[in-house]
Amino acid sequence: TTTMILLVLLFASAFGGDEDTWPCPAGSFCPDADTVRQCYPRYYCPVNSTYPKPCPAGSYCPDPTEKYICPAGAYCARGSVSPINCTARGMYCPEGTDRQSYCNPGFYCPTPVEQIVCPAGTYCKWGFVSPKNCTSGMYCPEGTERQTYCTGGFYCPTPIEQIICPSGSYCPARSTEPLECPSSYYCPEGSTWYVACPPGKVCDTNGESKPCPAGYYCNSGRATECPVRYYCKEGSSRPTYCPSGTTTVEKGSDECDMIEDN
């Protein structure tokens, strides 16, 4: 008590003796102008404190007059007087941490002060201390948390490449290379699977779909020449019989001729 009174008198002298402007000394708190109380352990009381404040989380207070930010590699809970080292594997403790935390997904932490983005071709889950290589048919760009199948409609020659499937090919999920489109099927760019050529169209060897040519009809991707007495316009899926009074005398006709009277 005597020491506190002497401190108050010393500060009062330094500030001209006007008790309305007396600062409450560091390491103490002053609920009113007539009361000076010693700060509690694990609390922080800078100059002019009216009440004690617990040393904040992410900082440590060796005594009530000092407050320091918690260093990287350690953590400081509320009311800490010294930092506590992060020791558990796979933890990340940057500067100002109030608790140990697992290394974030998509990153790896070889030490508690390092959090490094997971490189392309690897994956990193919670708390990883090193990245793990992705397997064939998987796609793992930079910062991947878990390996995922190469997307359907694409192929992945390596885990760091995902390329759109070209026209004339199809690529199911987890493809490492494009597969050739079968004959009479249709495979536009980005195909996950081959599909039957639509009626009235023909599919060439590149897997592209085109209208069935005039004079032919097309089913299952194949063009068949229009028979006699029938006609086939462009895009026909079946031959059409010539109307009464008309006919065709040759295959491959796209229109009918009038029948001449003998």
Describe this structure in words.
With 262 residues, the chain is mainly beta. It is built from one helix and 30 strands. A hairpin with a 7-residue loop joins strand 5 and strand 6. It starts with a helix and ends with a strand. Residues 1-21 have low confidence and may be disordered.
What's the average pLDDT?
89
Report the uncertain regions: 1-21
Largest sheet, described in full?
2 strands, antiparallel
Strand content: 25-35%
Q: How are strands sequenced across the largest beta sheet? A: 1-2
- The number of helical elements comes to 1
Indicate the percent of residues in helices. under 10%
Q: What overall form do the CA principal axes indicate?
A: rod-shaped
Query: Distance N terminus to C terminus?
Result: 140 Å
Q: Rg to the nearest angstrom? A: 41 Å
Tally the beta strands.
Answer: 30
Structural class from helices and strands? mainly beta
